[in-house]
Amino acid sequence: MRSKTRTTSGEPFRIPLTGPVMDVINSTSGDKLLNFVNYRREWSKALRKSNVAPFTLRDLRKTGATMMLRNGANLKTISKLLSHTDISTTQRYLVASEEDRREAIIKLNTLYSYKEPGVVTTVAI
Question: What is the dihedral of CA 29, 61, 99, 91, to 10 degrees?
Answer without folding.
Answer: 150
